[in-house]
Amino acid sequence: MGLKRYFAKRGAILFGVLMITLFLTVILVGSNMDAILKKGIAIQVRAEIVENKDLVEGFAGTDELNSYISNQIEQRTKALGLDAPWHSPNRIGLAMYKILVLDFGHSAFLTSDSGSTAVGDIILEKLPRTILLFTTATIIISIIGIFVGAISGSRIGSKTDKVTSAFAIISSSFPVWWIGLIMIFTFAFSYSIFPARATPPIPPSDPGYAVALLYHMALPIITIVLIGFGTWAYLVRNFMAGIMQEDFIFVKKTIGLKHRKIIFGSALKNAAPPIVTILALSLSGSLGGAIITEAVFDWPGMGRLYFEAITLMDLPVIIGATYVLTVFFLVSIFISDLLYGYLDPRIRTT
Amino acid sequence: MTDYSEIKSSFTKSRIGLAGIAMLVILVGLSVFTAIAIPVETYKQWNNPASWTELPKSALPIWINWFSEKKIPEHKILDAPQSTLKKGSSENIITQKFTVDYSYDYFPNEFLLQFDAQYSGSPVLKITAIRPDQTTLELLSTALPHSSQTSDYTDKIFSTNESIRKNLRLESQKFSYPIQSLTAKEIIFAKTTQHELLKGKYEFVIILSGKNIESFDSTMILGGKAFGVIGTDELRRDLAIGLLWGTPVALFIGVVVAFGSAISGLVFGVYAGYKGGKTDESMMRLNDVIYALPALPFLIILSVTTSNSIFLLIGFLMLFGWVGIAKVSRSISLQIKTRQFVDAAKTMGQKDSKIIFCHIIPQIMPYALASIAISVPAAITTEAGLSFLGLGDPTYPTWGQILHDAKSHGAAARGLWWWIVPPGVMVAITGLAFVFIGNSLESIVNPKLRR
């Protein structure tokens, strides 16, 4: 029972956080959003009149036409509830409700590759690409990191350990996106080994697309892994260092179990809960935390979408993307909580 | 845990910690040097292209010449020439001489004479080049615009000037090869026997003669492809100035954000842990909320919708930075409050605030110092990242902004490495200094990591 209550509480908190995030976002961009929506309505009405010739011919003069236009705009503004100021509780509630049920509306400038302006479509198109690059990279990082970290954590003070720790500390001081710039400079322009742009120039329907995509992905993946795995290894090393001093490890050592078996069998298993938590968090972080890296590599995923939306001030897209990224982030926090509770029995009793 | 002298003695034994301190001292020294040696005005003009016109475009750093056989010409701004004034009965003659020891392996990039004269009438300006082989080339002889009253006249004469070309063609008999198709710089700096660069001491003599010359001041710029310690960017800015001034700004951002967030997190966490119960519960929920907010997207939205002021950004960074420290200090204060001296203070009737500030926080201080040091790099890289996206504060150019300009001018594609590498290296060195200090402090104060 205790565990269930614990998760119910965590779930409630995270939902509250989602609401707060949404509320803050709506408040921050609300006033600008109104101006954009109103402009959109005016354009829509004019476009309809231009298309509908019968309607135009029915008017006696330009005055009547103009009054019709302003009437139409007013009606639609009211229908959307834009006549009330953006900060009225009704409006904010409605905006939050709409986003909550995944109705993000239409973007102001950006479109998806297929030409849709629905923010939902745009996000659905970009998200898989981000997952493809950054989740792959995160998985590679965690595998290398756990392996290297376990080895250096089992031999604290050895040469392997010193090299790993030094590499971890130094690599974590460099911004990933800067290393990206340097990698592009070195391997794309000075030595043309990899392409600089991460998007293949051929259409997705081409049979060679998958290979081309992998080839284009190589440089960003190498960069992310190079900078990322040191931190991972260092974390795993520190968990392992604590566990390797516990009595049961000494017992296993004295009964003559092989060193490798002790590390990867017993010790790593005991270090699993925090590692899994970090894995879950970094997997979700990989979905949204790459705004700058994607901008560097021109990778057409969520990060670049976000960046473009910001530079164009495309507010519906900004709100939609923030929401989606927050949801992923919170869900992963929740999952990592669940996993922690499952893996670490101590949680259940408290 | 709170034995400061023990911490100090362990710290002085830690090589990494000392390396960090040394790096920090160098960075602070660099900031002080910058503040003294480079006028703030230069830095303030960073984004004003008009104040950088004298420098070359995308010039390499000059030390590149140490590593290559063939020397790239350095960009030279020849100021304050030797000046002589000869007063005659009918006219005054001002002579100014620029001497250049030209020992590079390539022709210069063009050159120009910038002058400022105060006169009345219409004086005659003459430019003559005396070359290492003692040949003299008349480059220009031109009358300055007539003026009936004493007035100020400023102008620039470029080496691409048509009359310089014409004058040089008149000297073609001095050269044993056709010079018709060559540009002025390729003739002036060439040997007479064959079209090759002539190394040695060049003298440019500027003569202004006229009736009423009040003053004459000139500067000669010999355009080269290398300039300064770091080189220049596409917008002709001296990157060394940007990098140097970026140091105090980055240190300021990092240290203020780290101190601000660590101290507020410390007080918040300790208070929650000390009070316990409902207060603790609700404070920790607030902590959870901030922890779960996606920081980078929010920082971006905030700086787009509010303003890109660097002080506001520092505030926002603090807003997201205190959470982790609050959690740790809460759990430590939970342990400390069960100790006897806290009980004793309570029974003596001391106020909660006094217990927190006088008894608990001093115990946690070493941890706080370690976390301050560790959170400095994050603040600096986050600011650099936001600036890189173009959201930086243009009144305070930072390393991130230099990288943003590099990216938007395609520096990587064009091989302008001196525009990309140094800012990132500076970010990393600054980060490393604090990470070194923080790591060694942490391994001293945290017995779990102590070996």
Helix content of chain B: 40-55%
In N-to-C order, the SSE pattern of chain A is HHHHHHHHHHHHHHH
Main sheet strand line-up of chain B: 2-3-8-5-6
Rg from alpha-carbon coordinates of chain A: 27 Å
* Shape, principal axes of CA atoms of chain A: elongated
Approximate strand percentage of chain A: under 5%
Low-confidence stretches of chain A: none
Biggest interface, residues from each chain: A-B, 52 and 46 residues
Structural commentary:
The complex is a heterodimer of chains A (350) and B (451). By secondary structure, chain A is mainly α. Chain A is 78% helix and 0% strand. Chain A has helices spanning 2-51, 53-57, 62-79, 89-100, 119-154, 159-173, 176-190, 209-243, 247-254, 259-270, 272-288, 291-297, 302-312, 315-343, 346-349. In chain A, helix 7 packs parallel to helix 12 (291-297). The mean pLDDT of chain A is 78. In chain B, helix 6 runs parallel beside helix 10. The longest helix of chain B is centred in the C-terminal third of the chain and has 40 residues, at 352-391. In chain B, the strands form two sheets. Chain B has a five-stranded antiparallel beta sheet with strand order 2-3-8-5-6. The mean pLDDT of chain B is 85. Chain B is an alpha+beta fold and 451 residues long. Classes of the chains: A mainly alpha (350), B alpha+beta (451). At the A-B interface, helix 1, helix 6, helix 7, helix 8 and helix 12 of A face helix 7, helix 8, helix 12, helix 13 and helix 14 of B.
Short description:
The complex is a heterodimer of chains A (350) and B (451). Chain A is mostly helical.
Topology (elements, then pairings):
The complex is a heterodimer of chains A (350) and B (451).
Chain A: H1 2-51, H2 53-57, H3 62-79, H4 89-100, H5 119-154, H6 159-173, H7 176-190, H8 209-243, H9 247-254, H10 259-270, H11 272-288, H12 291-297, H13 302-312, H14 315-343, H15 346-349
Helix pairs in contact in A: 1-3, 1-4, 1-14, 5-6, 5-8, 5-11, 5-14, 6-8, 7-8, 7-12, 11-14, 12-13, 13-14
Chain B: H1 4-13, H2 15-37, H3 40-44, E1 76-78, E2 82-87, E3 92-102, E4 111-121, E5 124-130, E6 136-143, E7 147-158, H4 162-170, H5 184-188, E8 200-210, E9 212-222, H6 239-275, H7 277-292, H8 295-305, H9 310-321, H10 323-336, H11 340-347, H12 352-391, H13 399-408, H14 417-445
Antiparallel strand pairs in B: 1-9, 2-3, 3-8, 4-7, 4-9, 5-6, 5-8
Helix pairs in contact in B: 2-6, 2-14, 6-7, 6-9, 6-10, 6-12, 6-14, 7-10, 8-9, 9-12, 10-12, 11-12, 12-13, 12-14, 13-14
